[in-house]
Amino acid sequence: MRFDWRRRIALVTGLTLCGVVAAQAQENVAAAEEEKPYHITDDGTVDWPTFSGFRRYNSVCHTCHGPDGVGSTFAPALTESLKRLSYEQFFEIVVNGKQEVNTAVQKKMPAFGLDPNVMCYLDDIYAYLKARSDGAVGRGRPEKHADKPPEAAEAENACMGG
Amino acid sequence: MARLKPASGYVLAVAGAISLWGAQAMANDELLKLQEDPKQWVMPLGDYSSTRYSELAKINRDNVDDLQVAWTFSTGVLRGHEGGPLVIGNMMYVHAPFPNTVFALDLSKDGQIVWKYEPQQDPNVIPVMCCDTVNRGVAYGDGKIFLHQADTKLVALDAKTGKEVWSVTDGDATKGETGTSAPLVVKDKVLIGNSGGEFGVLGKVTAYNMKDGSIAWRGFSAGPDDQMLIDPEKTTALGQPVGKDSSLKTWEGDQWKIGGGTTWGWMSYDPELNLVYYGTGNPSTWNPVQRPGDNKWSMTIFARDADTGMAKWVYQMTPHDEWDYDGVNEMILVDKEMNGQQRKLLVHFDRNGFGYTLDRDTGELLVAEKYDPTVNWATKVDIKTGLPERVKEYSTEANGEDVNSKGICPAALGSKDQQPAAYSPKTGLFYVPTNHVCMDYEPFKVAYTAGQPYVGATLSMYPPEGDSHLGNFIAWDATTGQIKWSLPEPFSVWSGALATAGDVVFYGTLEGYLKAVDAETGKELYKFKTPSGIIGNVNTYEYNGKQYIAVLSGVGGWAGIGMAAGLTEDTAGLGAVGAYKALSSYTALGGTMTVFTLPE
Question: Which of A54, B49, B203, B441 is most buried, taking the most CB atoms under 10 A from its CB?
Answer without folding.
Answer: B203
